[in-house]
Amino acid sequence: MKIQNFGKPLSRLIIMVAICMLSLHAMAYNFSYTYQGKTLYYTITSSNTVEVTYYSYSVQNNNYVSGAVVIPSSVINNVKTYSVTSIGERAFYGCSSLTSVTISNSVTSIGQSAFSRCSSLTSVTIGNSVTSIGGMAFHYCDGLTSVTIPNSVTSIDWSAFEGCSGLTSVTIPNSVTSIGNRAFRDCSGLTSVTIPNSVTSIGEGAFLECSGLTSVTIGNSVTSIGEGAFAYCSGLISVTIPNSVTSIGDNAFAYCSGLTSITIPNSVTSIGTSAFYGCSGLTSVTIGNSVTSIGDNAFRNCSGLTSVTIGNSVTSIGGSAFYGCSGLTSVTIPNSVVTSIGDYAFLECSGLTSVTIGNSVTSIGESAFYECSGLTSVTIPNSVTSIGGVAFYKCSGLTSVTLPNSVTSIGDYAFSYCSGLTSIVSKATVPPALGNEVFPNPNSCNVIVSCGSLEAYTSSQWNNYFPNRIEEDCSSALQEVESTR
Fold first, then answer.
1. For a disulfide at 301, which of 47, 103, 281, 324, Cβ 3.0-4.6 Å?
2. How far are the Cα atoms of 158, 427, 447 from residue 473, in angstroms, in the given order?
3. Number of helices and strands (H, E) in the chain?
């Protein structure tokens, strides 16, 4: 099973639609004005304000303006002076010869795709009155190496710096409250990011595929880390999640193969689907006591994971949550409120030697411990009523199993191919219902049942599996009788 693909198809479709919509909004300019040898075009937006306007109706503005450009604070037309307050949508889109831009302090907003695909743009000075950087504003300006965002900016919109592969540093000021979806996606040259305390949300895919990113500091006002926010940041080795965060989104750190350890604070209540999928370098995880759910595939294929501490507020461990964590040696599922172990939860955890299942668990899902070949023993608590199909399939190291008196059903192939299994103790007085081929070769395995229940077992499905190999244990009953004499 693969995680959701953040890249490419959906993102490209959104971008294509956005570009098409923007082209429809390309307006004729009202006048032109030459400043420091560069002629730009302007649209009047009020009695005394103008914005820099998209000029060419062609696909790109290649021949529009080149070199270093300074956007003035004011312009004159017909002896009237106007203040330049905005840079319009696609104003410099595709100006492939534009090398630098200085934006005056009069400008308050940079529109969508304003400098998108200005491939030669290496430096930008943003005036300290700009409050918003629009979607795709510097999209795929791959020559851009550094950006200082002024303290006036409150929001960095979707895909604002997406594909700026040359960007090595960015300063996000304390004024910014939100980082939009895919804002810095595929900024592969970015090595470190500090997200200030003012930011409350990190959007979906915000730093997706920033493969050069090695460290991230997240401010203590962030409450949510969006879907795929740091996915495929293969160079990321450390991240500190503050106590303000309540949710870690789906795929948030998926395939961050350099990440070695993670502490999930007590503020977090949910770990999303595939949140740490494929973090092969991850060796230890501490899950805070406030987490109630571990999502499907949350730590799947974290092959280096050797230890995990599960907080005592967790109620469910999702399907495939630890699938393929071959380095995991032991797991303790707390006695708290965990009621279910999801399907495939620990499938192919070949290094797992022991499992302690808390006494609140009522069901063990299908293939939950499939092919955990290193597992030698397992204690199933009295709370468990059902063991799913293929639950312990091919656990070749398993030698004995004790089934509590609460178990009423065991699914198909639950212990099939457990070639080392020699002893089964069933404490249930009513024989649990059995699926198809539940147990391995019955000729090498004995069954011990509770005193007084031998007849029930020998007249049930159990006798088909273990003819003449079911024994009754009355030793404890005899001891009780002796003690009363």
1. 324
2. 68, 10, 10
3. 4, 38
